[in-house]
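step 3/5: co-fold with nicotinamide-adenine-dinucleotide
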Amino acid sequence: MYEDLKGKTAVITGGSKGIGHAIAERFGQEGMNVVINYNSDPAGAESAVASVENKGGHAVAVQADISTELGVQSLLDAAVENFGDLDVWINNAGMEIKSPTHELSLDAWNKVTAIDQTGVFLGSRIALAYFKKHGKAGNIINMSSVHERIPWPTFASYAAAKGSVKLFTQTIAMEYAKDNIRVNAIGPGAINTPINAQKFADKAQYDQTVKMVPMDRIGDPEEVAAGAAWLASNESSYVTGITLFIDGGMTLYPAFKDGQG
Ligand code: NAD
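step 4/5: write tokens
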């Protein structure tokens, strides 16, 4: 628990399920006010609202497509109208499309780019403008991936977007450091969420993924949420521009695990 988070207001994009849902719940436990964005799953968003309220926080669910300017504006408006302020903005929404790159359609490339890359820009821009206008020491967290570092054949649009999130995060962290606005990324490894449900339902694929993790297990969304709470809190007050990998060691070149090479 981080005492300074109590009563602060956060926007979480893509909060109806998976990692976003877990962050909402954790922020509820911290006594925060949370705007839970969803795109197409109102039931999931309502369950996240209930989780936040059960843990002692306050929450509202807001439908918005975060790849649009109107969408992110409606999330900021909801924070101000319902809770009077904005302190933390989490660009969590994301998606991936698998395709050999020589067959990847322009539509598919544009869709992944719009959500995973442009959505992060639009969310960050509106939060930065708000923090600047109100002279606030705001906090932005961008959900990247181990694939900001590890190439991922047949997911080129996703890896390209996450690589972009990394340098975008570092660049705006530097640009707004003097304003005391901190910007960091989180790089999850393999986490048990709906994005992986189909893959992990197949035992062979599940086992293959576990083999890529030195800690020998898939991560839980709550373990990512714990990192988000730390980055949002004053306990990380001198941290900006990093990617906090929460990956059980996946980025440590596990092919060398037993001294090979
Ligand atoms: P998820 O599919 O459970 O959740 C993603 C959320 O984003 C969903 O609620 C979805 O509706 C929302 N979303 C998608 N497009 C949107 C749009 N246009 N507007 C608003 N919301 C939209 O996946 P997750 O695993 O919880 O992923 C959350 C983030 O973590 C993503 O950015 C993902 O790339 C990243 N990540 C996940 C893993 C993992 O193993 N689960 C690993 C690395 C990175």
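step 5/5: annotate
Residues 3-194+220-250 form a domain with the Rossmann fold fold (CATH 3.40.50.720).
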